[in-house]
Amino acid sequence: MPLQCLVNQVRTYKHNSTPQIWKEDGVKYGLVTYYPRHKNHVDPPITPTKLFLIERVKQYKGIPYWEKQILKNINLHGEKNTKHYAVVKNTPEMCSILWKIKHLIKVTPLNAPDKLPEPESVSTYLHENGDLLIFPKVDKSRYEATIAFKKDPKRMDGDTLAEVLRDKWVNPME
Description:
Blueprint: E1 27-29, E2 32-34, E3 51-56, H1 65-74, E4 84-89, H2 92-100, E5 105-109, E6 122-126, E7 132-136, H3 140-151, H4 158-170
Antiparallel strand pairs: 1-2, 3-4, 3-5, 6-7
């Protein structure tokens, strides 16, 4: 019987580093090295927004206590539904906090005008896509004219108009 030799097989893992041909193509931004697709690629100028609209998209139930604490600090806690919104500043500290719960939230940049008007003179609406719409407040005379028009008995609203037209359709000779 021939002598069988047992040979141990050892797996060798190769460290996957950046290929040598890419080394000179990298552009360094602080601590991050960016490798553009083309050598003459130039990034468009980006002006970061000052505020973020944060929406919770996952359930509050079943997540670890430290993530619940972060959600509570941002005021995104609540058991009933997942559609909770909050507006936070775009600071490095807040971005590092949001990075810890990125699987629970949706971050939308808030597009607001550079100079916000006084809060007494306008009314605002925050859209889902992050647009902050600013409307001037309606003056009192225009508001009273609208109320008077709606209460006018001679006005033909949709229900009255539908009823009159239906009567004319059913009884055309009258």
